[in-house]
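Example (one chain per record):
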Amino acid sequence: MPDAPIRIAFCITELDPGGAERALVRIVKGLDRARWTPHVYCLAERGPLGEDLVAAGVSLTCLNVRSGRDVGGVGRLAKAMKDFHPVILQTFMFHGNIVGRLAAWIAGVPIVVAGVRVIEPDMRWRMRLDRWSNRLVDHTVCVSSAVADVYRELGYREDQLTVVPNGVDFDRFANAEAADLTRFGIPKGARTIISVGRLHPQKGFDKLIDALLGILMASDVDEPVHLLIVGEGPQRQRLESQIERFGLDDYVHLIGRQPDTAPLLRAADLFVLSSRWEGMPNVLLEAMAAGLPCVATNVEGVAELVTHERTGLCVNPESNGSLSGAIERLLIESTLATKIAAAGQARVREAFSWEQTIIGFEAVWNKQLSTQKNATVT
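Predicted structure:
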């Protein structure tokens, strides 16, 4: 008789649309159910991505933790996991990592694997807390080599870390039918710059709007240039005020969250990642898969996707002039833009599938299972 599927729990802070959240959903949905029985625990209320999990037949428990000060969330998660009896807990995001490892310790979960998705430079205390509580963790998966480098600097040993990059659904983005952008107020024939992400200081949309202003004031681009920003978040009002102050209401379009970004990416001329920090930006992978030439600030994980002037243009995250110059260059130099777009798309197709990501996580889990088994026998 074949072995029963291994019970594996996943803990994440929330299930609103975002890079880490989408990654978890894609990984869990892609697991072989003959090998794994997954159960996802979300600390917050059920977000939009929770419906995707339920529709895929994945068990989901949302703990409705209201804030980071709700210490009762640890006990509720521990009780829920005691009922499920997982052999492995895989956690994602800061609160999911910390609450998950504490609850796993209480519940007696044999193996705990943390997932680090981003480095927040203004939240070093979070990293110190992570390091202090790492005694409760068996292994840590980093989304990029850049993230792993930071953790090595914190004192993590090489054998405590594994890099497993994000993946992308290549065919979905490469073959999507282009959207009609006129419904968002962008006239036919205009050149469209697109960016996608949470309206948060991390994503640097304020810098991108500054860059657009510089392009419009001194550009050699013949056609009108418009900026389409897809996403929602706490910085909306500030960005709207910036747009109004610069007189860019007709050129910058904040269109909120959209159910499918693939058609929007396919309809645009250029993608820009203006982030101040990252881990490995999923949206950059998606834009490259869609065949867009890309400009990206050289933050964590970007150098592992973009080779400057070959698969994209990398710029200094602190220099608005570099950002606007790179954008204008790709809008003007069509041959370079076409070359970069093709090379970037080929790079993503070859190296960043979700199947490879799942294999990477499974390799970590299987190694931990083997280590535990050998320790038990000894």
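Caption: Residues 354-377 form the longest helix (24 residues).
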